[in-house]
Amino acid sequence: MNKRSWLLWAAIVLLTVLPLCLISAAPGTDVFGGSDDRAQQAIGTIAPHYKPWFAPVFEPASSEIASLLFALQAAIGAGVIGYWLGLSVARERARKAVANGAAPEQDQRAD
Amino acid sequence: MHIMEGFLPPVHALGWAAVSVPFLAWGLRSMGRALEAHPERRMLLGVAAAFAFLLSALKLPSVTGSCSHPTGVGLGALLFGPAAMVPVGFVVLLFQALLLAHGGLTTLGANVFSMAIVGPFVSYGVFRAVAALGLSRSVAVFLAACLGDLATYVTTSAQLALAFPDAVGGFATSFLKFAGIFALTQVPIAISEGLLTVLVVNAMARFNAHELRALPVMALRTREGA
Question: Nearest CA to B196 among B149, B153, B156?
Fold first, then answer.
């Protein structure tokens, strides 16, 4: 990776980590909850009599199970991206080897 | 940006679904056509879909002290046009509604509208506008992904404000309240999404230069941006 890519990665990490350092929970309040839940609370103050008229068909049994499914979703995405990156790097390497006049690297090991 | 299950009155839920369905049909058709004409683009489309899957699963902390997630649909909108991202966003939201109790079936139409329609279309529009100004590709990609992400959350705020106008101040007061929750939280996360999208597009420019040049949107840019 070039220097600029490293800088971009560093900026992303900073943007994510800084809020964790800058904000501390006041006693008795929870911090870093989901903004979706905050919106739900806001609905409760604007329309206190509103009752949700439909319930989720399936609810993860606990927050552990929910994080399992979120991790699964991220893993599927990251897996596909990793496959593409790996394939691309190998392809570029093979192309370079051909351009250098050598035959593409042969795997000598007998498996 | 997920409006929770049952949290939109039936009329609103139906209305947003009615708006989203034609976009979904359009998206499926444009995606099918694109793949039929250019089967070699399957890989990049897969990467764009995977990017949306990955990013929308990551709930990141923000300066407002709450967490929210990027959407990841800007990348695909730039590469394949905004309509192609509607089915992708739909699948992500359906997965989360069915398995995670995150969002919901009754609010699927509204959530698809904000994340899979407004987001990609804003990204696409911003990209074309910035590219027309002659700025570099990276700047255009960053602004497109960042503003598309933000637009999704502004849309969610407006949808909720329409459904739950404040007793005194009406739509405007409610909108400011919801925007304070969603859009403000989203600012640093949208910047992160913009930067990440630049990184992925740079990688594609290096590894898939040939395919990328053939994409109608990317072909708009003649100057390879630094």
Answer: B149
Q: Is A54 contained in some domain?
A: no
Residue A70 lies in a domain: yes
Q: Is residue B1 part of a domain?
A: no
Suggest the residue from B3, B8, B58, B67 to mutate for an interface test with chain A (most A CBs closer than 10 A). B67
Nearest to B191 among A15, A23, A76 (CB): A15
Q: Between B175 and B215, where is the model more confident?
A: B175
| A 6-45 residues inside an 8 A Cβ radius of B | 8-9, 11-12, 15-16, 18-20, 22-23, 25, 31-36, 38-40, 42-43
Full domain range(s) for residue A92? 62-102
CA angle B56, B157, A25 (to 5 degrees): 70
**Is A3 a domain residue?**
no
Burial of B112 (0-12, 13-18, 19+ CB in 10 A): buried
Has residue B22 been placed in a domain? yes
Domain-located, residue A2: no
Sheet bearing A33-34, strands edge to edge: A33-34, B66-68, B60-61
- Residue B220 pLDDT level (bands cut at 50, 70, 90): low
Q: What percent of chain B stands above pLDDT 70?
A: 95
Q: Which helix (H) or strand (E) holds A82?
A: helix A63-99
ipTM topping 0.85: yes
How many domains would you assign to chain B? 1
Q: Considering the domain boundaries, does residue B161 fall inside one?
A: yes
Tokens describing residue B209: 């230069």
pTM (2 d.p.): 0.90
Our count of domains for chain A comes to: 1
Range of the domain at B153: 10-219
Search chain A and give the residue with CA nearest B158: A39
* Residue from the list B9, B53, B199 with its beta carbon closest to the beta carbon of A76: B53
Q: How many pairs of residues across A and B have Cβ atoms under 8 Å apart?
A: 169
d(CA B195, CA B133): 20
What is the tens place of the pLDDT at every residue in A40-74? 889 999 998 899 999 888 888 888 898 999 999 99
